[in-house]
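Reminder: ligand-aware prediction takes two inputs, not one.
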Amino acid sequence: MAQASDSIRFILNDREVALSDVAPTDTLLDFLRLERRLTGTKEGCAEGDCGACTVLVGRLTGNSESLVYETVNACIRFVGSLNATHAVTVEHLAASDGTLHPVQQAMIDFHGSQCGFCTPGIVMSLYGLWLTKDNPSRAAIEKALQGNLCRCTGYEPIIRAAEAAAKERPSAVFDPITRTRETVAARLKALRATETIVIGKGEDCLIVPADTAGLATVLAEHPAATIVAGATDVGLWVTKQMRPINPAVFINGIAELQKIESSEAGLTIGAGVSYTAAFEALVAYPTFGALLDRIGGEQVRNMGTIGGNIANGSPIGDSPPPLIALGATVTLRSKDGTRPLPLEDFFIAYGKQDRRPGEFLESIFVPALPAGDRFAAYKVTKRRDEDISALLGAFRISLEGDRVKTARIAFGGMAATPKRAKAVEAALLGQPWTEDTVRSAQTAFETDFQPIDDWRATSAYRMLAAKNLLMRFFLESIGEEAQLQRFEDVA
Ligand SMILES: Cc1cc2nc3c(=O)[nH]c(=O)nc-3n(C[C@H](O)[C@H](O)[C@H](O)COP(=O)(O)OP(=O)(O)OC[C@H]3O[C@@H](n4cnc5c(N)ncnc54)[C@H](O)[C@@H]3O)c2cc1C
Ligand code: FES
Ligand code: FES
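Here is what comes back for the chain with FE2/S2 (inorganic) cluster:
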């Protein structure tokens, strides 16, 4: 394998770093705190939930080459994923004379901190927002804070601080990122790997391929390697289960995997596209944008990829059911070429996906929704934000006259894999799209699924909720007036 480099090179605050002694499992959080003594970044949960470890990571986006800064969870971000990025910690915010950044000052002025443990993470989340939005709405502030838990202050003072900080923009030279944006962008361009980086020996190594051809070569040589994209699943294998992941292949820097292409036929989304990057494209499918907004917090959405959500094969991943209902296909690639597959066929059994040795997921194709087709996805959780689905139902139908012409219904959380409700679909096909049809189709869920009891929901709850989601889809599809009429008729 061609080997141009044996070090990970990135910028940390205002210094360039080159590391040639990095283990696949080394996290950014440990590197900051233990090696660099940058202890402003805290460890709360070590699983991406609390936001105490939030830092910003700047990267050049795929083809546009613009430099974006995004909040990430340093606890589950691996050092091996940092090549050609700019990591910014809370220590970088204040001016050299000690003057605090407006975001930090507002947190003091508005009493946004008590014990202070969550504060550096909250400051970094608010700083990420401050950089991108001049006048954020309350909803935008709440979204930016979705992934930050504060156990003692309460969020009102923090939100007031965010509103006040938005108005404080002393000058471009004042802000550390604005001031250095151009030079950092040029530097990151130069740091981009043009050939594969390998650190370590034999199977005990981390590998950073420069492109998809390099990735295919690496996987042909190491078919049992762990592919690491956003690490929002793999990170927890390391921090919670202490699992080795070597050889680890970091793919988050591969520009080809981050493309989104739109045509009349539909969308082609690279497997390495993050939830945040996919939002603008997927929001065209009704309810998909709202669903994405409920995956993790902002940090997880900035790191986590649609490809990772599919490849992990979880029965409760949020993107497979809506993608299956929309008729998505995936493209798998290896050194031998590419292989397209309907997404629903990718999931074989619990923990078993149709991915052959040496293959990786390259892209997902999502067909356009024809005018007149109805589509919706509903996520059922115990709390609105930062929660994993108990179940998730996605529905798509088309009508001919008043009759159901096509129906695709897929669920997560109801079986060992994301799965279509084919008996329910059959019960709807050719029938008039009416409440009576829906009521009789509801019983077909019992043919399709035998859900399990677990701590998220009982089997009975899941079954009832699935049936009710079909009714909800029907009621929403007939519009508000028809619903009111229906309630009057019942009354
Ligand atoms: C706090 C928190 C909240 C979360 N909330 C949700 C939620 O609400 N809903 C939800 O669905 N998920 C949630 N997740 C799980 C996770 O964010 C998603 O599954 C995410 O999409 C995984 O993507 P990733 O890029 O981080 O994958 P990684 O962790 O990098 O990888 C996941 C798996 O996919 C494989 N893989 C990744 N990319 C490829 C590829 N291109 N080809 C082949 N294999 C590949 C990896 O080897 C691994 O097996 C949450 C995670 C955290 C930490
Ligand atoms: S320590 Fe809690 S999200 Fe990282
Ligand atoms: S100030 Fe104590 S946890 Fe937020």
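DSSP finds 18 helices and 20 strands in the chain. The longest strand covers residues 391-400. We will return to this case in the review session.
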